[in-house]
Amino acid sequence: MSPVNERRERERADRHRLIVTAARELAEAEGWEAVTTRRLADRVEYSQPVLYSHFNGMTGIVSAVALEGFEALAAQLRGAREEATGQAREEATGQAREEATGQAREEATGQPQEGVTGPPVAGKSGKASPLGAVCQAYLDFASTRPAVYQAMFVLPTELKFASDETPASMRACFDEFVACFRGDDEPRELSAEVVWSAVHGMAVLSGSGRIPPALQEERVGFLVSRLAE
């Protein structure tokens, strides 16, 4: 590619990012009903034909905002799952060490050791389990970035779910739920779909004031504990 063409490609990519950022910021400030191609053209100081050279109307712009949202959500879910998984491993290691010490003392003294119990069921309840952490991170994203979440899951877009055409970042979000279930849990993807459906319902209902947002962590704990039974 010639230097001139490379420069044009960079300028086009910069315009693309500028338009997407302007749409997201306007939606966050005034709601998606305020986002029009005319408003965006004024905001980015380009003509409407320039916008249409990048996107096939508002649906294309909403799709671009949604795709950025999926990238951010995937990273947030991954971070939450990995942190919770690390904590769970540390707790399991500590408990195993405590049990081994208790068993050694019992063998040495012939007396049962108080306070030594069997291992807890991993991920049985609460935010500390990987699944609970992923659910809570999902709800946190939806509550702190409602305009982006609306673009991702409510507004019409060009993005394909559950398809060979599904973008990698969208699949990565779903895979974080799947990763919370053991390999011998059957079927993992069905379990992930049910959990995702549940937390999406929580996000939408709490975001619209239908259920109290303050009880989200309690709802997550209830959901995760029932799945572990």
TrEMBL record:
SUPFAM superfamilies: Homeodomain-like (SSF46689), Tetracyclin repressor-like, C-terminal domain (SSF48498)
DNA-binding residues: 36-55
Keywords (A to Z) from UniProt: DNA-binding, Transcription, Transcription regulation
Alphabetical list of PROSITE patterns matching this protein: HTH_TETR_2
Chain intervals for the UniProt region annotation (Disordered): 81-124
Pfam families: TetR_C_33, TetR_N
Domain HTH tetR-type per the UniProt entry, residue ranges: 13-73
Claim: DNA damage is one of the keywords in the record: no
Gene Ontology MF term list: DNA binding
Basic and acidic residues bias spans: 81-108
InterPro entries: Homeodomain-like_sf (IPR009057), HTH_TetR (IPR001647), MT1864/Rv1816-like_C (IPR025996), Tet_transcr_reg_TetR-rel_C_sf (IPR036271)
Protein name, UniProt field: AcrR family transcriptional regulator
UniProt source species: Kribbella italica
